[in-house]
Amino acid sequence: MSAAGWTTVGSGSSKKKSGGSRPAAKTAQAQKQRAQMRTAERQGKVDSARKITGGSQPKGGPGARARKIDEETADFRHAEIPTAFKVALMKARTDKKLTQAQLAQRLNIRQSVIADYESGRAIPDPALVSRMQRVLGVQLPKIVKPKKRRTPND
Question: To bridge 104 with a disulfide, which of 8, 111, 149, 150 should be the other Cys (CB 3.0-4.6 Å)?
Fold first, then answer.
């Protein structure tokens, strides 16, 4: 024990391992095999290719996912917005001499939302349509939502 009351504690074994955990015979054998492979490659007897992804693909490989995508039959497109709505919105906005950005600012929404409605990329929210009608002072055509098809399993 030292003067300050501390004791020295070891980590268990004081013996140090030399040469790693494998026996010397196995490492020598592995080195010999690698040397033979290099010699065979130099002589052109072996055609080797390095595997880049080294087993990172899930079981079944990349083809399994691609096959699932190819077999998918669902239609992921939303319903079309009537052209009458798109034209009426653009006409009402231009009649009021408003840009898309100005209309969006009055409605507290992004300009891209107005652009999406006018191009037909998004289906307008009914509450937002009523706010647009108040701001623009016109009656916009109604957007009829398609009925959900009931399947026999429902």
Answer: 111
Determine the Cα–Cα distance for residues 81 and 124; give it in Å rounded to an integer: 9
Pairwise CA distance, residues 19 & 7, whole Å? 32
Read off the pTM: 0.47
Angle, in degrees to the nearest 10, between helices 100-107 and 126-136: 110
Q: Which parts of 26-121 are beta strand (E)? A: none
Contact 60, 75 (CB under 8 A): no
Residue 31 has pLDDT above 70, yes or no: yes
Query: How large is the average pLDDT for residues 88-112?
Result: 94
Q: How far apart are CA 118 and CA 89, in angstroms?
A: 7
